[in-house]
Amino acid sequence: MGATTIYHVTAIVALIFNVLYLQGAMGATFEIRNQCSYTVWVAGIPVGGGFALGQGQSWSVDVPAGTSAGRFWGRTGCSFDASGKGSCSTGDCGGVLSCTLSGQPPTTLVEYTLNGGNNNNQDSYDISVIDGFNVPLSLTPSDGGCYAPICTLDKCPDAYLYPGDTKTRTCSSGGNYYIVFCP
Fold first, then answer.
1. Strands, E, within the chain: which ranges?
2. Burial per residue of 91-120, b for 16 or more beta-carbon CB atoms within 10 angstroms, e otherwise
3. What is the sign of the dihedral through the CA atoms of 56, 67, 13 and 10?
4. DSSP state of 115
5. Among residues 48, 113, 114, 122, which is most buried (max CB within 10 A)?
């Protein structure tokens, strides 16, 4: 076998490895729906966000492969001008429509880590009230066998509380999650 043949075989093997590795490091899609009787302004880090969802409206967010961790939360009582500057009563993120930093408490959070850094397609996720509570929500992975936490107005039995309560779950979700405000 000549040097050119070895080079081509090595390149093909590397290409196959990269395709298989990237398939394992999949992104995720979060389908976010507002069932509240009021408008919820969705925010997310690192994917931005800045969507006003009226009752019954939804928003689909694709989180790309390579995005290891992030969070979503709902903001309430928001008002923004045409340039995207304004404020929210809860969950405000620096007075801008599209967030680049976490919201000010109180915020009920959905937190996630995709592929957990262990290359076995396991995602970790939780609902957190570490920053307080402002909007009831639920999080449901597309895999029906995975744990689906919920945090309602009267209590958050499935929420991560600091310190000492770890409600973080792990699942092979297939990359799809459903977040519902006011479940």
1. 28-34, 40-45, 48-53, 58-63, 69-75, 79-80, 86-87, 109-113, 123-128, 137-141, 150-151, 159-160, 169-171, 176-181
2. bbbeebbebeebbbebbbbbbbbbbeeeee
3. positive
4. G
5. 114
Question: What kind of architecture, by CATH, is found in domain 27-181?
Answer: Sandwich (2.60)
The tens digit of pLDDT for each residue in 142-165 reads 887 888 999 997 778 778 776 666
Angstrom distances, CA of residue 165 to CA of 62, 117, 159, 168: 29, 23, 8, 9
Q: Which residues in the chain land under pLDDT 70?
A: 1-26, 116-121, 162-165, 173-174
CB–CB of 145/99 below 8 Å?
no
Tell whether the torsion through CA atoms of 149, 90, 76 and 123 is positive or negative. negative
Nearest to 149 by CA among 162, 166, 134: 166
Q: What are the sequence ranges of the domains in the chain?
A: 27-181
For CA atoms 36, 32, 138, 48, the dihedral sign is negative
- Give me the amino acid identity at 76: T
Q: Map tokens 């895999």 to a residue.
A: 143
The closest of 77, 86, 131 to 104, measured between CA atoms, is 131
Overall pTM > 0.70: yes
